[in-house]
Amino acid sequence: MAQKDNEVREGLEGVVAFESTISHIDGTVPELVVRGYDINDIVGNLTFEQMSYLLLFGELPSSNQLTDFDAELKSLRQVPKSVLAFLSSVPKSSEPMSVLRTAVSMLGCIDSESGLNDQNSVLIKLKSLIAKIPTIVAAQARINVGETPLQPDLSLSHSSNYYYMVTGEVADEKTLNAFDAVLVIYAEHEINASTFACRVVMGTESDIYSSVVAGISAIKGPLHGGAIDGSMNMLKEIGSAENAENYVKDALAQKRKLPGFGHRVYRAGDPRAHVLKRMTLDLANSRNDSHWFDIALEAEKQMASLKSIIPNVDYYAAPLLSHIGFPVILMTNVVTSARIAGWSAHILEQYGKNRLIRPRAKYTGKSGLKIHKP
Ligand SMILES: CC(C)(COP(=O)(O)OP(=O)(O)OC[C@H]1O[C@@H](n2cnc3c(N)ncnc32)[C@H](O)[C@@H]1OP(=O)(O)O)[C@@H](O)C(=O)NCCC(=O)NCCS
Fold first, then answer.
1. Is the pTM of this model over 0.85?
2. Residues near 195 by Cβ (< 8 Å), separated by ≥ 6?
3. Which of 69, 181, 221, 246 has the fewest C-beta atoms lying within 10 Å of its C-beta?
4. Alpha-carbon distance 324 to 289, whole Å?
5. 366 to 256, 359, 360, 361, 374: CA distances (angstroms)
C-alpha cells in the first residue's frame, strides 16, 4: 500500500525503509527467510559460526572458509584487561544490558582505529564484536556471582566456549545443540527496532561501536529483546499451569501487555516460536521436568482463546534458556550476543549503499505565536 504524502504511520508500521538482501519476513505465511534460506531449514543445520558467515558474506562458507573464519573468531575472543576491570568495578545492582552497552562503548574507546570506516576495517571490527560480546557477557555473569571470569577455551566452538565461560562446564551435546540453536534463531530478524537503530547511526557515517551501542540500547527495552526476561519472570509469577487462566484474565482486564506475546509483523504466528516450542518440549521431556513448559503452554492457550495473540520468539526461548542453566538476568544479553551477527550484516549493507536516514514529522503543534519581550 503506497504511503500518501503527510500520512503518519505510527511506529512506522508497514513502512518499507530499505531494499535489503539479508532477510525477509512474511507475517501471513508466516515465514522468516535469511539470505534465501528458511529458518526451519537453518535451525539444526547451521552452527552459529556458519550463520554469522552467511550473514556477513551473503553465502554459506566452504569448509576452508569456515575453518579460517572459525580461527579468526577464536583469535578475537579475548577482551582487553581494562574492560574486565570495568566489569569488576560496576555495582552488582547495575542492569546487565547497561553494563554490556558500556563495555562495548569502551571497546570503541580502546580501539585506536575505531573511526576507520573502510570496508575491511568495518568487517574486522564486526567480527571482533561477534567474538567478544560473549566473553563480556560471560565475565559479567561470573563476576556477579563472585567468581573469576574464565579465559576463552580455543579448543571449543563459539557456543560451546560461550557456555563454558558462563557456567564453568562444557555442555553436553543436547545442551550445546539447544544453546547454539537459540543463538542461530536470534541472529537476524530484518528491520526490527534495534537493527533500525544500528542502521540509523551507521547512516550518519558514525563509527561501528556507536552503531552497535545504539542497537544494544534499543534491544534492551521490554517491548523488544528485554521481553525474554519479562517472559521468564511472568512464568515464575504464574507459578503453576492451574494459575495460568486467572493470571492471563487479570492481566488482560488490566490492559497489561504480556511479555512474549504479540508481534508487529507476525500476526498469525512467529515461526521462531514454533521451533523453540518444540525444542523446549524436547528438553523438558529429556530432563523429566516439564514445569515451565506446562505453565507456558497453558498461558498460551488462554491468550489464544481470550485475545487471539500469538507467542513470539521470546516466549519459549526463556524457559529453554532456563532449562540449560541461564539465569533470567542474563537472557537479554544472550539475545544480544546472537543479534550482533544480524546487526553486522545490516551495518555492512547500510555502509555499502548509504543514504542518511532522515524521516519527517507531521507538525501538529502551535503556530503564529510571537515573542513578547517584557
Ligand atoms: C511486540 C508488540 C510491541 C507489538 O506491538 P504492536 O504492533 O504495536 O501491537 P498492538 O499494540 O497494535 O496490538 C494489537 C492488539 O493486541 C494487544 N496486544 C499486543 N500484544 C499484547 C500482549 N503482549 N499482551 C496483551 N495484549 C497485547 C494490544 O493491546 C492491542 O489490543 P487492542 O486492539 O484491544 O487495543 C506488542 O505485542 C507487545 O508489547 N508485546 C509484549 C512485548 C514483547 O513480547 N516483545 C517482543 C516482541 S518479539
1. yes
2. 189, 215, 339, 342, 343, 346
3. 246
4. 12
5. 34, 21, 17, 14, 21
User: What is the pLDDT tens value at each position of the chain, 374 positions in all?
Assistant: 556 678 899 999 999 999 999 999 999 999 999 999 999 999 999 999 999 999 999 999 999 999 999 999 999 999 999 999 999 999 999 999 999 999 999 999 999 999 888 889 999 999 999 999 999 999 999 999 999 999 999 999 999 999 999 999 999 999 999 999 999 999 999 999 999 999 999 999 999 999 999 999 999 999 999 999 999 999 999 999 999 999 999 999 999 999 999 999 998 899 999 999 999 999 999 999 999 999 999 999 999 999 999 999 999 999 999 999 999 999 999 999 999 999 999 999 999 999 999 999 999 999 999 999 98
Read off the amino acid at residue 272: R
CB-ligand 1 contact for 249 (6 Å cutoff): no
Q: From atom 14 of ligand 1, which residue's Cα is the shortest distance away?
A: 262
One-letter amino acid of 368: G
Grid cell in block for residue 146? 563472585
Say whether 31 sits in a helix, a strand or coil.
strand
**CB 318 near ligand 1, within 6 Å:** no
Residue to probe by mutation, ligand 1, list 305, 309, 315, most atoms within 8 Å of CB = 309
User: Ligand 1: does its nearest atom lie under 6 Å from the Cβ of 311?
Assistant: no
- For the chain, the structural domain boundaries read 32-221+333-352, 227-323
Which secondary structure element, helix H or strand E, spans residue 16, and what is its range?
A: none
| Domain 32-221+333-352 belongs in CATH node 1.10.580.10 | yes
User: Using CA atoms, how far apart are residues 179 and 156, in angstroms rounded to an integer?
Assistant: 14
Which of 263, 270, 313, 335 should be mutated for ligand 1, with most atoms under 8 A from CB?
Answer: 263
CATH topology of domain 227-323: Cytochrome p450-Terp; domain 2 (1.10.230)
Asked if 285 contacts 46 with a C-beta cutoff of 8 angstroms, the reply is: no
Given CA atoms 259, 263, 267, 271 in this order, what sign does their dihedral have? negative
For residue 24, indicate whether it is catalytic.
no
Beta partners for residue 25, in sequence order: 32
Nearest to 104 by CA among 136, 140, 143, 82: 136
Phi, psi of 141 (to 5 degrees): -60, -45
